[in-house]
Task: structure prediction
Amino acid sequence: MTMVEKERLGFLTKLARFDWSLLVVAMALSVFGIVVVYSATYSSESQDFRNAAFSQSIWLLTGTAVFFVLSFIDYRNWVKWGWLFFLLSLPALFLVLGIGQTVNGAKSWLRIGPISLEPADLTKVGFVLFGAWWLVRTKSRGIVFAAPLVAAMALPTLLILKQPALGSAGVFLPLCFGILFVGGLRMRYVFLGVLCLLGVLIYAYWGVGKLGWDIPGLKPYQMNRIRTFFDPTLDPLGAGWTINQSLIAIGSGGMSGKGYLKGTQNMLGFLPKNISYTDFIFSVVGEEWGFLGGAAVIAGECLLLLLCLRIAFAAREPAGRAVAVGIATILFTHVFVNVGMTIKVVPITGIPLPFISYGGTFLISCLAGLGLVESVWIHRKPEETTLGGA
Amino acid sequence: MRNPLDSPPPYLPKLRVGVVAVVISACLGLLIARLWVLQVIEGQTYANRLRNQTTIALRLDGARGPILDRNGIALAENRATYEIDLYLDQLVRDYPKRHRGRVPRIQVERRMGGATLLRKEPDIYRVVMTDLIPIANALHLEVKLDPKELQRHYFTSPNVPFRFASELSYVTVARFAEQNLGVPGIDVAVRPVRHYNFGAFASHILGYVGPPGEKERLGPDGYDLETMGRIGVERLMDGQLQGKPGGRILRVNYRGYIVAEEGYTNPNLGASVYLTLDARIQAIVQEALRTVGRGAAIVMDPNTGDILSMASVPDFDPNGFVPKISQEDWKKLTSDPTRPLLNRSVSAYSPGSTFKVLISLAALKYGAITLQTQIFSPAAIDIGGHLFHDWTKTGRGNITLDEALQYSCNTFFYQLGIRTGIKHLDEMAELCGFGQPTGLSYLGESPGILPGPAWMKAQHPLERWTTAHTANLSIGQGFLEVTPLQMVLLMGAVANGGTLLYPRLIVGVSDSQGRQLASIPPRPRADLGLRPQDLNAIRKGLLAVVESGTGHSVAIPGIAIAGKTGSAQAKRRWHGKLYNDTRAWFIGFAPYEHPKYVVCVMVEGGIGGGATAGPIVHKIMEGILALERDGSAPQLVYFNPAQGNFNGLTEIQPKVDTPAPVRPSVPVHEEEDSRDNSSADEG
Result:
């Protein structure tokens, strides 16, 4: 059993080791996000929508502050109490099932005074810390290593499925897998995991898609979404409406888009107003900025993820590596599922696009996650800087 | 500090991070690839789908151009009509606000992409009724709506207004506006509708319009036409009269509400068609002709061939065809035995003695006789073993051509025709356009029948053309059939000094700004080829007909009128009995010296040319003279359809007590009549 090692670094030292590239990319994406949120909401009559871009700017400033604070605090302080953060986030998940607010059919928001937050976001970060904590606690890289993590993953997944927020629940699986894989899980288990993943994919594609099986435990509306994913013409005015309109929005954007504030799909309400600035913001990007804009956003997100992985690469300490990879996996899953659903690569699930979608807690969570990753970079051992540099 | 023995099994963490980086990059690369397919490769498809769902193109029908007479009096033009339109979508949208309740819903089965789905949709019938009933009650309108049709309209084209009531009276519209009955979504709309200003006025010429049949004809732009010309000038000139449609392109939002207008093109008024008709003369003629049960009358300018008036009795009101004629009315029109839809001016009838004009022309042209030649004309002559009678019991003795014309002496013309020979008679008749269409085929004209040896061989191979046939032709009886229009053209040639003209009914076409697009000049058809002194002699003979001959009933003091009467025997079977249905004719021109009008009147079921047709011509000429003298014309009013009848038929007793030789004397005639009967009944 090894103690997590601690070095005391001065503030100026930390500042000198700060990796600005991470922040620059995240800020660029976020500012672009605000620009797009404005476009998605400016033509709306409701005041709530019209304030969205302004609110998002406030959230961005808040999130940036959180990012800096977390960057300068040694992440190992958090990892040490990782199990506690995770456990603490669970009652919030129970609570939300009882007194949560229902948004878009899922009871996933807690309202505390003036702010509402989505406990699932906290749980995701909590799980990363928990995984990192367990990674350094156990020497096993087999069943003993994997079983508690899988069990710990199942609990929030089931609770979130109960809300029901399919998308959020789906983040935990790749997250868990990412931490286990980078944490050094034996290859035989890795293969087992990959086999399971393939099995699920085949089940989904052949069983659900071609043969029309039901997935046990899913609500009818969720099943409908999955069915319309396989065949959007099934009910073009009902369940298939959103995906069809999203495809039309993005497809009609063409190479260079229709221009800023000129997206008719969103303006005329074909893309429902209540999701065009949150979960379907990418449709607005695709329509107004075209392939160039859409690809740039994906590339930007990819760059950010690779910067996170560079930090994981540079970390020689397993907990830091796990934190960086965990956060990257969360962000990646969000990007892939969110963009994927707007262009019919995955079924529609309500999860936002990091840094672009409107949403206070989620933006702050993302920046907080990046703060942890930055902290991993700043608090790496001096000799580990061989790969460093901006 | 880390104890090497305690450390976890070794692995290559950097490699694994690298693997994660590769997987992530690959997945996001996949998204970019998919984005490329969607936006760049399939982009146009989606752009089209976007266009389809965000814009609707509305067609604004062009208004039909007017049809005017030669003086610019509009005979057919467009009248504004009012209708109530329902904008279903707006009614549904406003329902909660206006009635403080949720929109009633109804379960509807819809087929979508092969699957039948049960959908909840707004119960559009109830929504509409809630708003419409009070309005309809206030306007005393009956509400008859089919809920199914309404629901379908709402589902398929919510943006297109649903026509609730059309042809609203002006009073209703005024009340609607006055009481401010409209609610958003229920509105009065104006639509141009064809209107024939004077009702049953030149209706056989104008024709009428009707809705195009299913897939019958598409406009030049590929859209359905609202109306199209059915017969007559409306049909012939449909391409010119149709207004160029305009259009609106509207941008709609996801619920189909119109948010902006993207484009607008004004619908245009179609071109104006000017006719040669003079509405005032037409009114005079129609007034004069409607005293009979069946007949036709034409007034033509002999110098240009312009048809100044053309009437046929009975007639019909083309307004009855707008917007669509009822099944009932249509049946009434088509089953009427007097056949109001038939244009008698261009239908073929036996000309009787009026044809003697042509015989005279042929005889003089080919030198069969001279003006001084006298022919002995008894009460009857024997031709090929049959007795051919004059209409007098006494005969005329030795007479010349002008006297024969004056008294319409049959026995003179039998001999004259035979002397000239059927070859020359047919040649002349052909030159004058008999047996051929005159060029107004759009009026449904008949070419008539010009019989001769060749015709006989083709039509009745078992019979042979004999001199008896020639004799019959010489007094305009037998197989011969001509149209009043052909007769008026013949008389026109006599009047103008020998030039046969094509009739002209359309002067030209102008666009809605008055710029002339096309004009149709008068067109000569042939020269009669007569020596002037010969033609003058015939004219003189015709003058005598009116002054002191069979056509005296036409005479008007102060104006010299020339003409020829005719009474063609025809028989008609009616309610199982055989009747004489004599066609009474008069063709003539005036003034004698410098003719300006050629008139032809033909009456079915008349007594005789002088007795029946003459007074009508007299009335017409009187009217025209009054018009020339001081411009006094009958007021142009709305004409009700002239009703047809079979007055004037005289029953033929089954027991014929006329001398036996009469029957064989006109063998051709008998046969001709029975054929005529059948054609008149079916035709």
Notes: Confidence is low (pLDDT under 50) at residues 384-390 of chain A. The longest helix of chain A spans residues 281-314. Chain A touches chain B through 57 residues (CB under 8 Å).
